[in-house]
Write a structure and sequence with these properties.
Elements: E1 5-6, E2 10-14, H1 20-27, H2 44-52, E3 59-66, E4 72-82, E5 85-92, H3 101-115, E6 120-126, H4 130-138, E7 142-147, E8 150-156
Parallel strand pairs: 5-6
Antiparallel strand pairs: 1-2, 2-3, 3-4, 4-5, 6-8, 7-8
Helix pairs in contact: 1-2
């Protein structure tokens, strides 16, 4: 089970059923979900199902909350593909874009994964999601390949120093 991580402005923690309304607000925003494979959420039941996914072995969706208010502003997902390889993804509510919250979250989670002996991280981003691609590249991710509008990125974490 994931324990919480505290950064300067955030608390990263396991999602709870009480987060369902905020998850729905985040994942129902058409603009925020423009580059996601899944369509925007349309019901509270879908948000509750997302929380239930965390019970799947190796899979975790972590809530990113503001330290001062405990408001859920986004999520970070990691799926352990094997003991040393993980796939990641993240989503943030539109009012919290361009404030460094994704960078703060990604930095903390990369450190967490390195501490868990993960040696390689894989991420997928839509080519047009320029901000996400830039963020990943700023943490040493590089393009492995691409398919249609998607970029497949990877990072060798054994040498990660951020």
């Amino acid at each position: 089970m994931f324990e919480s991580i505290h950064t300067a402005r955030l608390v990263l923690r396991t999602l709870k059923s009480s987060d369902a309304k905020r998850l729905l607000a985040i994942y129902s925003n058409d603009k925020a979900m423009a580059f996601r494979a899944n369509p925007p959420m349309r019901s509270l039941d879908q948000a509750l199902e997302m929380i239930e996914e965390n019970k799947k072995a190796g899979f975790q969706r972590i809530g990113t909350t503001l330290k001062l208010t405990n408001e859920l502003i986004g999520t970070f997902m990691f799926d352990m593909l094997d003991k040393h390889i993980a796939k990641i993804g993240y989503s943030f509510d539109q009012p919290y874009w361009n404030q460094g919250f994704a960078k703060e979250t990604l930095g903390a989670m990369l450190k967490y994964l390195v501490d868990k002996e993960v040696r390689e991280i894989k991420a997928v981003s839509h080519k047009q999601n320029i901000w996400s691609v830039r963020l990943l590249k700023s943490f040493g991710f590089y393009e492995e390949t691409h398919e249609n509008e998607l970029l497949y990125l990877s990072n060798d974490l054994e040498n990660h120093s951020q």
